Amino acid sequence: MARQLDEQIIGRFPVGKRLRVLDVGMGQGTQALRLARAGHQVTGLEQDATMIAVARESLAGEPEGIRERMRIIEGDGRDTGVHFLPGSFDVVLCHGVLMYVEEPDPLLAGLARMLAPGGLLSLLVRNGDALAIRPGLSGDWAGALAAFDTVAYRNRLGLDVRADRLKDLTATLAGIGAPLHAWYGVRVFTDTAADGAEVPADVETLLAVEEKAGRTDPYRGVAALLHLCGVRG
């Protein structure tokens, strides 16, 4: 996904431009820190105190220049208008958040308002059109059968959450003024890997396969996650 995001950033903004980045629901700060290291000015918004502590600890170990380029704010992604002015960012990330939001449209509209004209909105969501894949490959036939007609599922943390369908999000992005520009699949072949599984010796080949599949039909359509990139008109 990082490679996909970099492809979109490089294709949209001048090389060397220091971008203003907002990472909504930044978690432990993996993408936020990566972009700060690349020279961008990054703001991470997160409401989970444990995640914030992990992100702050990681940031504390970075060189001063990177620490100065990143700030962390405690808050809910649905309240971006409380913290920032419209058009304040060139790139807005919202990765792995929508599945926890029962009504995502207001959140998405708020994210779009944060973008400057031509800005990039990057979403990572659970693929509602492929929910039967994981239980099917695991031999859970009853679970696979039930998954065809719902966007609700139980994640690996044991939480009941929701997925999004590409068609629905495409319409939503168009309606909020950040129409879909590109989309990718994420975790096409590796979604059934056990948590904590050992990283294989040929991990670079694995990543190359996943990257290729994530941009190729029909493989990307059955990925566990979708990476959608919208552009503010």
UniProtKB/TrEMBL annotation:
Gene3D superfamilies: Vaccinia Virus protein VP39
GO molecular function (one): methyltransferase activity
InterPro entries: Methyltransf_11 (IPR013216), SAM-dependent_MTases_sf (IPR029063)
Keywords: Methyltransferase, S-adenosyl-L-methionine, Transferase
Domain of life: Bacteria
Biological process annotations from GO: methylation
Domain Methyltransferase type: start-end pairs: 22-122
PANTHER family attached to this UniProt entry: METHYLTRANSFERASE, UBIQUINONE BIOSYNTHESIS O-METHYLTRANSFERASE, MITOCHONDRIAL
Protein name: Methyltransferase domain-containing protein
Classification of source organism: Bacteria, Bacillati, Actinomycetota, Actinomycetes, Kitasatosporales
